[in-house]
Structure prediction request, 572 residues.
Amino acid sequence: MKPAARLRRREPAFEGQWPESIPPLLQRIYAARGATCLEQAQPKLAQLLPLDGMLGLDKATELLADAIAADRHILVVGDFDCDGATACAVGVRGLRMLGAKRVSHAVPNRIVHGYGLSPALVEELALLQPDLLVTVDHGIACHAGIAAARERGWQVLVTDHHLPGDALPPADAIVDPNQPGDAFPSKMLAGVGVMFYVLLALRRRLREAGAFGAGNGPDLSQLLDLVAVGTVADLVPLDANNRALVAAGLRRLRAGQSGAGLRALIEVSQRDHRRLTAADIGYALAPRLNAAGRLEDMALGIECLLTEDSRQAREIAATLNEINAERRAVQQQMTDEAERAFARVAFDPAAAPLAPCLFDPDWHPGVVGLVASKMKERLHRPVIAFAPAEPGSDQLRGSARSIPGFHIRDALADVAARHPELIERFGGHAMAAGLSLHRDAFEPFRDAFDAVARAALTPELLQADVLSDGALAPAEFDRRHAESLRDGGPWGQGFAEPQFDGEFEVLSWRVIGERHLKLELGCAGLRLNAIEFGGWDGNKPPPWVRIAYRLEPDDYRGGEAVQLIVVHREAL
Prediction:
């Protein structure tokens, strides 16, 4: 079912000025990603883009400063994914650090309220009697909810990073680097990054007003562990600004300086905090936080991030771990059903949809994003997965995932422009989006979306590529180079983790855990341990293979041991 991927090597690049401490291999990796000096490859906090240019900061900080001075009730409204949860925690903790006495938080329940600040959520929040709402990681598309809040006399500050629609919502202030007229150089901040910048601006405003006496104010870098987790989890491109934020957060995490909640999540994930990487955030911490918002209530995840009680943090982390195990089981079942559904319509390649829209009345709305992501990876096509908003409902919630070169939000906007009666609500980015529609609109939408996709998708875009940084020399298969690659990040979207390729002899192999392939490979007289997760397909590996792989320290075996993580394999 998985399309044949094409293994391609990146264009080699060797230019740049580097200190002797940077191995030539890492210099080559950095140069291939456009970095020509250490400051570009490993940006520091001192290189963060300045606050000036981010539209709306003056009005936003005025609202917050006035609320703090008047002891008004500030209510931070989060979102039910990891970016929204960390942004909520950063907002609550940061505002308290800056002197706010009455700060609380709320988060919508995915099934009960739907996405973002909805009128239904506003009605519930009335019991809390807020004066100022601060949305984090959402709000730019919440016109009705913001209007409902304003009708109650509340002020509303929107902090978001999603692309706006044709009109902005009627908020008192909006901070979103992607809104029209914003001159902030980076458009890649996650929601948690936007909230962190709002706090930096608020601290500057309060400092200029003399709120901290002769001091500079609280050290907001204490929040960077949360900023790092939310930024990596949301899969935003790691441009230089985001890498500076994530690297600083990772340093705090590795030093054991994170909050009790993140320490507990690292522990329950069985990771070593001293060696934590961006990949560990993406594959271990973020899924456990996200699981709460997918199957239960993200309020539990936010509680984990806010508590400073180590015992409570461990109890919540254990619960999140259990929810995540349940999420994996639900996701596997739904993905299997999705594959069977696609197979029923794809037996004739000429009739197979280029952009599948999949729906099952028994699917869980909190997991459709993961199903869409898995199917996108397996098919290398844009995919939208739908589920009932709640059991038995005729309202559908869809989650879309795309491939490079096909802007999924723009595609939805194109469908909405051509068929305004189909989509009730949508929003998102180039690679991911969400939408709502009625069950009766599913088939017409599916056909309309496929038509838009067929007009835009070329054979080249539908070709899955595995990009390699070339071959490793025999002397580079060692612990020193593996550790330099691990610690040379953070790696992620837009600054890809290094992977290499080569031809190897298969000296031995065995299946572990039913699905994974453990290999011993030979190359230039070396015997190398390798593992391909999910690589067992029932067929014996050939005697010689060409693989793409990552080189990692083998911390399980210890000493000087390294291992290859196989990401692509083909017979010779």
The chain has a mean pLDDT of 93. Residues 474 and 525 are 9 Å apart (CA to CA). The first strand starts at residue 6 and ends at 9. The first helix runs from residue 24 to 32.
